Amino acid sequence: MSPTNTTLLVIDVQKGLDDNTPFHGGHRNNPQVEHAISTLLTLFRTRNLPIFHVKHNSRDPSSTLHPSHPGNAIFPFAAPSPSHPIDEPLYEKSVHSAFIGTSLEADLHARGITRLFVCGFTSNMCVNTTVRMAENLGFEVFVVEDACATFDRVGPDGVLRRAEDVHAYAMSDLHGEFCSVIKASNVQGLLGN
Q1: 163 vs 32, 111, 148, CA distance in Å?
Q2: Torsions phi, psi of 177, nearest 5?
Q3: I want to staple 149 with a disulfide (CB 3.0 to 4.6 A). Which of 33, 40, 53, 73 is the partner?
């Protein structure tokens, strides 16, 4: 795998998706997600590889991700680095896919990027939708499952599904069909020396 055609895509790592956010379901799986994302950011920055950031601007005024709320802000640990020599563009969206209403696809192609390592929030929503579209658009996609997280969800049957299960189902649906689901510990080996 050539690192020159590879990027890290960081999706919706925003304060409104912190653990125990009632609006999004309360309990969030993967309490180590922040550490895993930080590790990936450090790895890509150290290797001077591009990092593409995505931020969700909800249209719902009651959402913690609406631009009028503090939860819309990106967590400081995951914010684009203005002082780092590589370009870390930020794409703002108002739908689940990072490819809709943004120049993300065109910008990836313009830089010759064909492989995406994806992390962020939430596993079953924006990560899932973006990954499916990325594969449909011809990108090779790796989802770093321990650098993704989601929340408890109540199904149409009224049954509460734990965040751990929702995350596992989302990864199972993606793996082998739309991407390769991997661990953060696998990324460095896949990037090569």
Answers
A1: 14, 36, 11
A2: -105, -45
A3: 33
C-alpha 67, offset from chain centre: 19
| 56 backbone dihedrals φ, ψ, rounded to 5° | -95, 125
pLDDT score, position 139: 98
In this structure, are residues 101 and 132 in contact, taking their beta carbons and an 8 Å threshold?
no
Q: Which residues of 1-39 are buried (b: 16+ CB within 10 A; e: fewer)?
A: eebeebbbbbbbbbbbbebebebbbeebbbeebbebbeb
Taking only the tens place, the pLDDT of each residue in 36-68 is 999 999 999 999 999 999 999 999 999 999 999
Do residues 105 and 98 make contact, with C-beta atoms less than 8 angstroms apart? no
Q: What is the pLDDT of residue 85?
A: 47
- Encoded tokens for 94: 């108002």
User: In what helix (H) or strand (E) does residue 91 lie, and over which residues does it extend?
Assistant: strand 90-93
User: Could you tell me the pTM of the whole model?
Assistant: 0.95
Cβ(171)–Cβ(143) below 8 Å: yes
